[in-house]
From TrEMBL:
Cofactor: Mg(2+)
Record has Magnesium as a keyword: yes
Species of the source: Chaetoceros tenuissimus
Name assigned to this protein: Fructose-bisphosphatase
GO cellular component, one term: cytoplasm
Organism taxonomic ancestry: Eukaryota, Sar, Stramenopiles, Ochrophyta, Bacillariophyta
Amino acid sequence: MTRIETLTKILEDYKVKDANLLKALVYLGEGSHKITHLLENYISHTYAGTQNQSGDEQLHLDIDCDNAIFEAIRESGVFSIAASEETPVETDVSPEGDDQEGFFSLGFDPLDGSSIIDANFSVGSIFGIWEGKGVLNRTGREQVASAVTLYGPRTTLCIALPSKSTDYGKDVVFEVTLTKDGSMWEVSRDQITIKAEGKVFAPGNLRASNDNEKYNALIKHWISERYTLRYTGGMVPDVYHIFAKSKGVFTNVSSEKAKAKLRLLYEVAPMGLIVECAGGLTTHEAHDGSVLDEKIDHLDRRLGVCFGSSEEVALYKKFMFGN
Ligand code: AFP
């Protein structure tokens, strides 16, 4: 069986209702396969022993990864609009002359963690899928599916299907892994769930704790309670650690002097859907609601967040909002 056939079969087993949505996910898998190749062939400045102050080489990689996803979604023939962190405009990707009935829109970050790539750390792609035309003025809760790809020693794709998109009977999150020769996808985690409690923390934008007293108190609490630190500086591996261990908490919080940089459309909403479909909770820094209820009122909207085990997110709310 081919890569496309294996992922199609897996998604059929997870009872994806809509044939076009199934195809959309399969082609995001194809784009992720292309990025795996790009990363394998990327020679970092460190490795090449060359200097590139402007980061041109790295910029190229970001653009190449962006192009890989745009190519894949155009090939799928089921997307009408896409916007990405690299191409931050609603871009028409629909096949020419099609009436676009039953098409989808995509918000994505092709290469999250590009600043840690020269250290050969794991990086990722993040995808949020909406029905219809456009990603503006939507909420994360309206997504029909989301996915992240983790490029590490293995390439894995973690897919969230909310119950409205599957006949599976409930929200489901699962993981597929690309075989070493890149020819097939195999299910590697059948049901990803997040337990209520987990003393593992990934405190992003930690510099904010210097002038955000509430964040500082929360971090001190976690340290005094002997939480285990697992942090790489890449949101995909850092949140993925929660999926792999079924527990933990990830934060990225602002202060006056250090604003959080995660984008609602490209990073927060898609990752938030996976976390909530796996039984975890999400919240943010504006108030104590879910990130999935925040409106994407502009493409670049940024939001400090907390994701993970429900009891840990409850602690975040207690320290940040006093409830
Ligand atoms: P880059 O893509 O520029 O490396 O940024 C990655 C990221 O947006 C996200 O993946 C991390 O969680 C976050 O930055 C790390 O931020 P801090 O360095 O402020 O903790």
